[in-house]
Amino acid sequence: MSLREIFKKSFIQGFSRYDMSPTNIAIIFAISTIFALYIFLAYRLLTRKTLYSKSFNISLPVVTLTTTGLILAIQSSVVISLGMVGALSIVRLRTAIKDPMDLAFLFWAISTGIICGAGLAEIASILAIVVTIMIFALDRIPVGKAPLILMAELNDITGEEKICAIIRKHGAYRVKSRIVKENKEKLIIQIRTFKFFEQKILQEIASLDFVIEASLLAHDGEITY
After folding, report:
1. If DSSP states are collapsed to H, E and C, what string results for 127-189?
2. Which residues contact 68 (CB under 8 A, 6 or more apart)?
3. pLDDT digits (tens, 9 = 90+) for 105-160
4. Cβ count within 10 A of residue 115
5. Which of 57, 77, 148, 185 is the most exposed place for a label (fewest CB within 10 A)?
6. What are the tens digits of pLDDT across the range 63-105?
7. Spatial contact of 65 and 113, defined as CB atoms under 8 Å apart
8. How far is CA 73 from the centre of its chain?
9. What values do phi and psi take at 196, rounded to 5?
10. What are the distances in angstroms from CA 222 to CA 94, 145, 154, 172, 195?
């Protein structure tokens, strides 16, 4: 046997590592489905966004299973693998992913599909455990707190200083917006304070005679320092 034949045989065997019988394919897809559903539940439980995207969450298991089928097809034939590389090289995804956590879950789904398609369920299990613990732990590390937003409507434009004085006693603030019409004023103020001062600030502001309405909002947006 010549060196070329040995190399060719070894190369082809590398792409036919597994027995592609219907039973083995069904087992691989069953394992991939279990991990896909786990990712679906993890995204629902671990992400705490106000606007939950159900369509994006459904796409994660679909991506996992599709990737698994793609890896199985690539392993079955060298020709298919080369054709798949050419086909995927011209695909452009135009949907922008704005949340970094969505991108992380999408990459997790793709990686799990690749790992399951390669028949390495043990690695997919370890990956699922490590990623879940990592997200759960890092989400609870107090690296910063998003500021509160105070929205107040006044019937006296001179009352802003009194409101700022109340906030100043319990924390820091920054006036983000002022809307004045006739003798009324609407304020939007960013507040940084401790949690046990939040209700006290709102009660003191709402008790002022010139305050028509006051509300304190929390958000999960970006934290600036």
Report:
1. HHHHHHHHHHHHHCCCCCCCCEEEEEEECCHHHHHHHHHHHHHHEEEEEEEEEEECCEEEEEE
2. 28, 29, 32, 113, 114, 116, 117
3. 989 999 999 898 888 889 999 999 999 999 888 877 766 667 888 889 998 888 88
4. 25
5. 77
6. 999 988 888 887 766 556 555 655 555 556 566 677 778 888 9
7. yes
8. 30
9. -75, -5
10. 24, 9, 29, 18, 18
Q: Which residue type is seen at 152?
A: A
C-beta neighbour count of 35 within 10 angstroms: 24
What does the block give as tokens for 13? 């065997």
C-alpha atoms less than 13 angstroms from C-alpha of 96 in its C-beta half-sphere:
1
- Whether residue 176 has pLDDT greater than 60: yes
Which residue has better confidence, 17 or 148?
Answer: 148
The phi and psi torsions of 99 (rounded to 5 degrees) equal -90, 125
Please state the pTM of the whole predicted model: 0.63
Tally of residues, the chain: 225
